[in-house]
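Batch job 17 of 40 flagged for manual review because the log was empty.
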Amino acid sequence: MMYLMLVVGFVLLIKGADFFVDGSSSIARLLKIPSVVIGLTIVAMGTSAPEAAVSITAGLAGNNDIAISNIIGSNIFNLLMVVGLCAVLRGVTTDKNILRRDLPVNIGISSLLLIFLLDLKITRIEAALLLVLFTAYMIVVVEQGLKNRTEEQKEESSLSPGVSVIYIAGGLAAIIAGGNLVVDNASKIAETFGLSQNLIGLTIVAVGTSLPELVTSVIATRKGECGLALGNAVGSCVFNILFILGISGVLSPMKASGESLADISVLVVSAVLMLIFGKSRGRTSRIEGAVCMMIYAGYMVYAVVR
């Protein structure tokens, strides 16, 4: 039964992401807002809903290893696998705002998280600071997005406002339901093999909760919405650290294992790598995407055998 529900979860993720991308892209065109802004806000927060549910619930239940490793693992997956796969499929053009603002912000907050975790815990004060930074970041993104409205949107391919909202709401509901099914059943399957909480959070749960980002970004890339795809991946990373860990830490101070320091170091390196690749000719090429995926595969091997 667990395997059947796992398949059902994947189906909901794929179809939900398809509708969600169509609805979000349509809203962006109707409002003449760059799709990258939609990706950094609505899409990023929507596809990060599984991470939020898992980490907040795990934190309140005292399963801090899963809560923190889930976020770190999800962000590494977003940067190396999600962006990497999208680049392999089509090559990902780097939006200038993501290059100048969001990628550096991602490096900064990943480094800040490393500093916070040097004592293997996130206090309520540190968590509150993350929430303050999240609020400031959202204000900047939305304000700049509204200033950058353009008349060059493809309005002829836009859905009506009502249908767009239905697509977004229905797609988001399917994404959340699918993500929960995948995580719950994948975790049960993993536990039958005696895996640790930290390893489950870093691998099975992290990958499972990141499937919405993966599916959404891949579908967006195939539809030519590279800005939305990259914005979704990077925006999800920012949302995961600033909002999810912020909320989780304010509700309940969090403790991490020593292994988390190595994992967060990998995250910081991955964030820097994204900026380097993004700056090279203004796009992440297919070769660079393949490099990202190989690095992730190597990291997974390390996580399992350590």
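Reviewer: the log was empty due to a logging misconfiguration, but the result itself is present. The CA atoms of residues 52 and 244 lie 5 Å apart. Unflagging and moving on to job 18.
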